[in-house]
């Protein structure tokens, strides 16, 4: 628990900067918030492709906000290509799960279970140095429970897409807010700089 970024406020600026720079791109929570809002838009308008595309586009703009605000960090060799490959694999997994949900109507939401795997697994791998907060784990757990919704009549029939997109959108927004807050807090002045 001592590796958690919120516990690093007393570190020297250089040590804090090194820890942060290694996973700076993974903590850009506004990207998740923008994507989550895209999912919610898709749920409300029943236009998944448009909503998710808008979320992805605004997610890119959110990343540029961090660069303007805090500056850029050159990722370690291969990190960008691994993140891109991971994102493409995640997109394929989510699309396949979404299609299977619509065609097979399984007793649980495969799309939401896929999101637990993609979001939870992805963040676990990309934030392994700074760690995940208890809120991350709660969100992943609630996502897993929400995947059971069809067993109790939630997200069935014509409401499958709305349910799935809403649950995933909310999860992305919460996780995004947590990561954004951590990054902004870590980028703030150290206690020594404040005095």
Plain-language structure description:
With 195 residues, the chain is an all-alpha fold. The chain has eight helices and no strands. α4 runs antiparallel to α5 and α5 packs parallel to α7. The mean pLDDT is 84.
Name a few traits of the molecule:
195 residues; mainly alpha; 71% helix
Number of helices: 8
The overall pLDDT, averaged over residues, is 84
User: Based on the structure, what is the oligomeric state of the protein chains?
Assistant: single chain
- Helix/strand/pairing class, anyone? mainly alpha
* Head-to-tail CA distance between termini: 27 Å
CA radius of gyration: 18 Å
Number of strands: 0
The poorly predicted ranges are none
| H/E series | HHHHHHHH
Helix content: over 70%
Largest sheet: none
Tell me the overall shape: elongated
Summarize, please.
Helices cover 71% and strands 0% of the residues.
Q: What's the structural blueprint in terms of helices and strands?
A:
Blueprint: H1 13-22, H2 29-45, H3 48-70, H4 79-104, H5 110-126, H6 134-146, H7 160-187, H8 191-194
